[in-house]
Amino acid sequence: xxxxxxxxxxxxxxxxxxxxxxxxxxxxxxxxxxxxxxxxxxxxxxxxxxxxxxxxxxxxxxxxxxxxxxxxxxxxxxxxxxxxxxxxxxxxxxxxxxxxxxxxxxxxxxxxxxxxxxxxxxxxxxxxxxxxxxxxxxxxxxxxxxxxxxxxxxxxxxxxxxxxxxxxxxxxxxxxxxxxxxxxxxxxxxxxxxxxxxxxxxxxxxxxxxxxxxxxxxxxxxxxxxxxxxxxxxxxxxxxxxxxxxxxxxxxxxxxxxxxxxxxxxxxx
Length: 269
Ligand SMILES: Nc1nc2c(c(=O)[nH]1)N[C@H]1C(S)=C(S)[C@@H](COP(=O)(O)O)O[C@H]1N2
Ligand SMILES: [Mo]
Known about the structure:
By secondary structure, this protein is α+β, with helices and mostly antiparallel strands. Helix content is 24%, strand content 22%. Strand 3 (109-113) and strand 4 form a beta hairpin. Mean pLDDT is 82; it is low at 1-11 and 32-68. The structure holds the ligand Nc1nc2c(c(=O)[nH]1)N[C@H]1C(S)=C(S)[C@@H](COP(=O)(O)O)O[C@H]1N2 and molybdenum atom (MO). The site of ligand MTE has 20 residues, from strand 5.
């Protein structure tokens, strides 16, 4: 897929136009790559079947779903770096939804479901008891800067699995075996809902999607989203919601702060 080696350095309308241009171009690149990747008809027709469709075709169908959503496959992994690659103090961008003071011990995470009862409430330690993960990747801001960052926390997918979240049945999420049991989207917001993001479930359950309580080896500060933030290594930074207060699983398309302002909602890298 097209790599955004030089992200747009302009802001506002110009940036939006440039991003739309990039997305259109990636669609074309994707379509050509798909055709080239198909190879010979012989190989296509003799390959084994998956869901009643020869598997290369099935792959193309899946790939096209990915392309339609934005860029590439949701399961591709972002490159990782040794922790020594982190340089200088962490840059801060965006303070929407972070103005009120929040104390870690008082903080609660609400998990709700579209059209269902009161949901669940979690404390920080419920999440901190999950297996810890360290991830050193490049945070890419659409405004034109990127920096290697070291995030520490737990996988969003482990949180979902441990508490039986994200599914209609309340059973463990099984994206491969029982995809229809999953809600289509997850909406995540700051406690005041001033900043909010929409994710598809595949992106939320990606192995490099974390709920983080540390950044570059230190507890999160308020401006980086204390006490708990989201980090997605395969998306532009504007999807990495700082200070999560609410998570809601739903089928109806949830709002997204920057998508409502003209940015690509999928924000894939
Ligand atoms: N609550 C909240 N989360 C947010 C933002 C924001 O304004 N408010 N900005 C986003 C943007 S645009 C980026 S690039 C990253 C930056 O994360 P950092 O400040 O920890 O470097 O946070 C994202 N998460
Ligand atoms: Mo950003």
